[in-house]
Write a structure and sequence with these properties.
Length: 143
């Protein structure tokens, strides 16, 4: 059963939310996790793709937008609005507004919320769904 972590930021800034996500994605990559970043649409995927190239000088995180075709290597972060391919289902960053399509191999889900009412309301709904599914959910607010 997957473990879920909610990170609730004190700001309503979407940019801050995305930058915080990039920092966590970098941390996951450095620990050997090749995760999937679930987005709502192609535009949000492109924003995350661009930020992963520029958010920190000297940082290199191999990544690409997933449009249904598997990359040549498994050692890359995938970003997209489609269901994650099999080898990228272990760790999922959910930046979308929907409950993700989870598979048995999903071990960790990271939800990053800004402090806007729209984002928090969608997050509350997903929180309840995770709990009802029997997953362990933790919340981090001190960022």
């Amino acid at each position: 059963m997957a473990e879920v972590s909610f990170y609730i930021l004190p700001t309503e800034s979407l940019e801050d939310r995305y930058l915080f996500a990039c920092k966590l994605i970098e941390k996951a990559y450095r620990s050997g996790s090749f995760c999937y970043v679930l987005t709502d649409d192609a535009e949000q995927s492109r924003i995350i793709d661009d930020l992963l190239w520029t958010f920190r000088a000297g940082s290199f995180i191999p990544h690409q937008i997933y449009s249904g075709e598997l990359p040549d290597t498994e050692k890359v972060i995938l970003i997209g609005s489609l269901v994650a391919p099999e080898h990228w289902q272990k760790t999922l960053f959910n930046l979308s507004s929907r409950y993700p399509d989870l598979k048995p191999q999903t071990e960790r889900i990271l939800e990053i919320l800004d402090n806007s009412e729209t984002t928090k309301e969608a997050g509350r709904n997903r929180y309840r769904q995770y709990q009802q599914s029997g997953m362990t959910v933790t919340t981090h607010k001190d960022w």
